[in-house]
Amino acid sequence: MEQTPKHNTESMKRANELSIYKLMVVGILITMLGVYLRFAGDSMTLSVVSWAILFLGSIIACKGVFKILAA
Q1: What keywords are annotated for this sequence in UniProt (predicted)?
Q2: Which of 1, 7, 53, 64 is least enclosed by beta carbons within 10 angstroms?
Q3: What stretches in the chain show pLDDT beneath 70?
Q4: Domain containing 16: what range?
Q5: Distance of CA 51 to the CA centre of its chain
Q6: pTM (2 d.p.)
Q7: 3-class SS string, the chain
Q8: What total number of domains does the chain contain?
Q9: CB 34 within 8 A of CB 54
Q10: Integer distance in angstroms from the first to the last C-alpha of the chain?
């Protein structure tokens, strides 16, 4: 009785696409920039901009994760 490998399924092939991981890395880098700016200065404008960048980066990274999960 031979079992078929489970790593050749369509979902695994989609999860191993390089573009998804590039999207996640870009999202993580944008999020890191937002965190850095969050602690870089003490002005209200910089604080609002850093929160926006942080939120955008986390949305991009989550989009990559959901693409892997195919949700």
Answers
A1: Membrane, Transmembrane, Transmembrane helix
A2: 1
A3: 1-7, 71
A4: 10-69
A5: 16
A6: 0.79
A7: CCCCCHHHCHHHHHHCCHHHHHHHHHHHHHHHHHHHHHHHCCCHHHHHHHHHHHHHHHHHHHHHHHHHHCC
A8: 1
A9: yes
A10: 34
Measure Cα distances from 62 to 6, 20, 25, 28, 30 in Å.
25, 11, 11, 9, 12
Encoded tokens for 30: 């944008």
Residue 21 to residue 61: CA distance in whole angstroms = 9
List the structure tokens of 51: 């929160």
* Tens digits of residue pLDDT in 6-24: 667 777 778 888 899 999 9
Residue 24 makes CB contacts below 8 A (sequence gap 6+) with: 61, 64, 65
Rounded CA separation 68/65 (Å): 5
Distance CA 65, CA 71 (A): 9
Quote the tokens at residue 34.
């937002």
